[in-house]
Amino acid sequence: MNDTAPDTTLWADLDSPYALQPAQIEAFRRDGCIKLQQVLSPATLAHFGREITQLTIDLNTESRPLEERSTYDRAFLQVMNLWEQSALVARFVMGQRLARIAAELLQVRGVRLYHDQSLYKEPGGGITPAHADQYYWPLASDRTITAWIPLQAVPAEMGPLGFYAGSQGVAFGRDLGISDESEAKISENMARHGFPFEVGPFELGEVSFHLGWTFHKAGANVSDRPRSVMTVIYMDADMRLVPALNAIQANDRDQWCPGAREGEVIATRKNPVIWSR
């Protein structure tokens, strides 16, 4: 476990409230996604980002060349629940600022952790196909939200995340995992029904939030630099477990909600409440 002496400036950046405006909450309710500027300082991102990126590289098990991987495996290297590997990363994941934003956007009394996930798109890494995250989650309601936190600026050539605004109510495509099929079918359906695809660069300190059922995707990293991103997935503090609909949801249940019972609130040791009113 790697940790450093507390830095009160960084701690305040992680925990102090963010001035979320009513219009932004309404925009999120309508669109199922939002990008917020200056959420975390460059110093905070650099301090915690070094640890997150190094752990992702060290713990990653993918060693094949890009050309030998599937579309899914070319999209990014990923490692989950880094908060369990490092006290420093745990401090980041348990930060009050991001969790409070998540709760206010969801309009719930509080949020607990589902899991964290680092996403490292290598130079030359492929697209992240269109999908909705909640396909993977055995959760009872749509009160789930992902904070997508770039650890550096993400210009267009590095593959920033983009969203189909307003798509969170669309049922088509909810049974498709990340794949060539999901990219083709979901993208075509979104275009046919006129859902705008909103994508653009991320400035350093900009963070996006999206609902579990909002469809989204990212472009390839055609730059010569890696795109390092940390994500934290929050759920309503009162979220209940439901029966798994597929083997992937069963695996998620066992990995991220150990000991939770169907029909009951997911209050396990891996799912602490991070912020509540």
From TrEMBL:
This is Phytanoyl-CoA dioxygenase. The keyword Oxidoreductase applies. Keywords: Dioxygenase, Oxidoreductase. Pfam families: PhyH. One of its GO terms (molecular function) is 2-oxoglutarate-dependent dioxygenase activity. It comes from the Bacteria.
